[in-house]
Amino acid sequence: MKEVKESKLSIRFLLITKNQYKKQDRRKVLIYKQDQSTFLNGYRKYEFDVEHPEKIPIVVKKYLAGNSLENKIQESQIRDILVCTHGSHDKCCAKYGNPFYAQRKKTIAELGLKNTRIWKASHFGGHRFAPTIIDFIDGRYYGLLNQESFNSILLRSGNIELLNRVYRGWGILPTCIQVLERELMFRHGGECFSYKVNCLGVNMTSDKTLIQTWLAALKPDGSKYICQAKLIKDEGKTIQLQGSCNASQTSEFIKYSANHLSFKLE
User: Fold this and answer.
1) What is the secondary structure of the chain as a DSSP string?
2) What's the average model confidence in pLDDT over 139-167?
């Protein structure tokens, strides 16, 4: 991790566990890589096991160098849901994340979802939204979750407006324009989960109060939407607060409202 940081590589490490009190001989390694395709619908995932923790850096270095991993690496379509429970980093995540993880683990088992796993994870941000999750392989973030909203995410069912309170954004897109994809979702409903997107451009003022952006959305039938919008800083929703429980000072968190939207079907 130190070498990656010094090299300024765009990589983020998270530790995950299903049961921190159970000793295991093997360790699971999941790698999520953003595809290089023009239109994206999530991440490409690779999954493999190592015998000992000491071998994890060796495997990661081989992967980053593009070397063969002796057929131990494999693509996996299993859905992985990460719940932040990192109490030593932020007590909010432990307070709300741990009971949420335990309850939702039972939910997945009761629904018999064989291809869905849920993990405790180290901190990935957003403690003010706890309990908060990342849903892979698509890479969408959700927060302030309860049983009803989690079931809606899990089963991709129910009223799309329910997600309006919990949807934080899609990790494959630049943070500043995720609000546009959100608008697209609530205009077109749950079918948006099957769309592929491509960020066509972003123009931002130096003070970050105005963003002009274009986003293309490709539907499964091959038709394409071009979405254009002006994202304006919403003074009423932009807030100043401590970024974590341990923060010594407040930071500004800018919220945008989408104005002058246009959707063109090609």
Assistant:
1) -HHHHHHT-S-----EES-TTS--SSEEEEEEEE--SSSBSSEEEEEEEESSGGGHHHHHHHHHHT---TT--EE---EEEEEE--TTT-HHHHHHHHHHHHHHHHHHHHHT-TTEEEEEE---S-GGG-S-EEEETTTEEE-S--HHHHHHHHHT-S-GGGGGGTEEEETTS-GGGHHHHHHHHHHHGGGGGG-EEEEEEEEE-TTSSEEEEEEEEE-TTS-EEEEEEEEEE-TTT-EEEESSTT-SSEEEE--EEEEEEEEEE-
2) 90
Residue numbers of the domain that contains 51: 1-172
- The answer, yes or no, to whether residue 177 has pLDDT greater than 90, is no
* Percent of the residues in the chain that have a pLDDT greater than 90, as a whole number: 37
231 plus 256 within the same structural domain: yes
| Same domain as 147, residue 75 | yes
- Per-residue pLDDT, 252: 85
Q: How confident is the model at residue 211 (pLDDT cuts 50, 70, 90)?
A: very high
Q: Which residue has the tokens 């295991």?
A: 24
* Domain shared by 105 and 208, yes or no: no
Confidence band (pLDDT; 50, 70, 90) for 183? confident
For residue 75, the model assigns a pLDDT of 60
Q: What is the pTM of this model?
A: 0.89
- On whether both 196 and 121 belong to a single domain, the answer is no
Residues 97 and 22 in one domain: yes
**Beta pairing class for 79-84 and 116-121:** parallel
